[in-house]
Amino acid sequence: MSEYHSTTVALVSNTSWNIYNFREALIHELIKQNWTVFVFAPEDSYSESIRKWPIQFVPINIAPKGISPIQDAALVLQLYRLYKKYNIQLALHFTIKPNIYGAIAAACANTRSINSVTGLGTVFLQKNSVSRIAKWLYKIAFQFPQIIVFQNDSDRKLFISSNLVKASKAFLIPGSGVDTNRFKLQQYPPKGGRFCFILPARLLWEKGIEEFKYAAIELDKKYPQQACFYIIGAPESNEKFGLTVKSSALWCQNAPIQLIPHTTNMLEWYAKADIVVLPSYREGTSKVLLEAASCGIPIITTQVPGCEEIVSHLKSGWVVTAKDSAALFRAMENALQEDPIVLQKMGAAGRKHIQDSFSESIVIQHYFALIQRLIQ
After folding, report:
1. Domains in the chain and their CATH numbers?
2. Which of 89, 231, 288, 360 could form a disulfide with 25 if both were Cys (CB 3.0 to 4.6 A apart)?
3. Residue spans of beta strands (DSSP E) within 261-372
């Protein structure tokens, strides 16, 4: 990559967690290329780790969910003032609210911006008044950024066909990438007793946790004590969208599933996994599937955008129809009965696909190519 003259860039997200987990490599490459880097995000348990990087962290206030005209107008004003105060010349927006309100603020501050659509979430999975308002806000705000980045082509085409973005502004980048040196090929099959299925995801219904529960119950009935089942992720705050702390214990009471709170050491869990399962309804590009495949673990996932691009059916895992509990059960049964040598070959094929198409270095090259378009 060519070096750029020192200038100011801000990465803006709705959580410090998002920046820490998905954008560290991009930030360090920006620093290497002589950019002065700011991170604007709310305070959370990852903020202190970000402050240790050679960047300037500025905490901001973002209402985590919902639409509030007063709070959202305050966010636009807050970001506008920060862009002006720190003379931000390029803003990289991640997650829904920064994409919408950060784009408006950047336009008002005469700051160039790149929006990254990392997933559609409930805005597009549900049809209600909030969804309609959110789409309208997208349409308004997405007039302003010079570039809109999508993590899969289905999302890109959906935004274009829905007249939310012009095709000339819409670009494709293969997810946030994965560090294939950190998530290296692991021993397969892992040492241990029972065959281990793990589902690494927040406890959201749209991640397919109900389908996983059904499959786990049926597998345990048919093959008692042969497999173990884990869901690894943080509970949801609203029962409408997923399991809360209060409801999670009752939910898995009669199922052979163990719920593990969110962990900062997924490598430890990947080392235990025979199969990683993600029966999601839709993703941007699933980070956990990228990590698991990079480790050489076979995958069971769904035929939806953000998942199906990562797995080749019967080559590196199994791809099933979303929301189909019986299909998920059959795939998990096939995995349980498969020869370990075949599973090992599946994992190796998955890792090669990640190295060829989804490594962090590839993603960073894509971002810098787009940044160069704006600063020429």
Report:
1. 8-177+359-375 (3.40.50.2000), 195-357 (3.40.50.2000)
2. 360
3. 275-278, 299-302, 317-320
